[in-house]
Amino acid sequence: MTETLEADYVIVGAGAVALAFADTMLSESNANMVIVDRRAKAGGHWNDAYPFVRLHSPSSYYGVNSRPLGQDRIDETGLNRGLAELASGEEACAYFHALMEERLLPSKRVTFLSAHEYTHGHAISLATGRRTRLVARKNTVDATFAETAIPVLSPPPFEVAPGVRIAPPNALPNIDITNEGVVVIGAGKTAIDTALWLLGRGVNPDHIIWIRPRDAWLLSRENLQTRFEHFTRSIGGFTAELEAARDAASIDDLFARLESAGQLLRIDPNVTPTMYRCAIVSKPELEALRRIKNVVRLGHIEAIERDRIVLQDGTFPTNPRRLHIHCCADGLAKRAAEPIFQADRIVLQYVRRCSPTFSAAIVAHIEATLGEGADRNAYCTPVPPPRAPRDWLTMALADMRNRAAWATLPGMNEWLHNARLDGYSALIARAVREQNPQHMALLDRYRAAAAPAAARLNDLLRASRP
Prior knowledge:
This protein is α/β, with parallel strands linked by helices. About 35% of the residues lie in helices and about 20% in strands.
């Protein structure tokens, strides 16, 4: 006989996004929830991450609203020196495991079906095959829409001949690299982490071959700090973005202005990036990456044979003793945006650029606090994760649209000021309270540039359509 579980919300997925939603619903409503995930523990892809992974953005605004991540300290050594700490993969896993065991489950309002596959309203145990029927009295919450793909769970998207040494980054600490060198395959966050790990372990940069089908625009971590002493740098960076957008003569000119302002970075100043995925680096990390000179730009790999790598635009020699590191999982798969609030489900997506857990928390806040019949989608325009530079513009516009909509909701400003996952609103609120002339002048510039920037971004997008 099939067991039935009823709850106000059935949440599919137990990764960071799902847990940020559940945490806010627990704080701001009386709802009960069933969370279903195929993994044995909460935390999503963090459970399978490579051992040297760290957040690219500060720990201070990642995770869930109710629980701090890390010690709110400034790193004193390494390539992140002088900036807010970045949680390791182990720290992120421990954080989400503790959240489940110490907050969600003890509330008696959350049931966690771990190691279960969700399909068509049922949770199927991966251990026994037993089916549990799940009934959502209010909504099913799809937290898998922006699920993160990682190399250890994704086979290489190309043919690999027998005898070729290839491994995901997870295996690196236990593999002998040898003097034959190493090939890093990919251009995103995982490849950057892998290259930095190799350099940090003393691998000669001349022994590293980096296959980068595309170069990427990168965000500057120095401008993404939320301590008040960083106000001028962080809020000044956002102001510089708006002024760059306002004054740009073309999309190419916009990116030149963003780079000149220090908002966007690139590894090779002589190569125009054709990719943008929200990856973040510090300036010392950027300088370290520039030490790798053996960069192959011949398109995507089609096959790795024993003596050569076959790419879209040519071949490159290799040998069976050389280690090839697969860093080319798609990360966030390209999917067309959907309305977040639908008739029978909530599809969690970004509503602020490059901010997955904040987005889930504010969607939960809107779900919990807006009355019946309210048009929740009016406050939650999806901000699709970017892939190409042009997406920077569409993200910025959707982000602005949501901020303007939130400003019309009673109590929203206070919620944002108190939201751990925001950070920047609290900076602005403090500046307004203290009335420092330099800070207020910066905020005046920010406000003055906002509307003209949005208008210009719309013009640039219209002009660039095929």
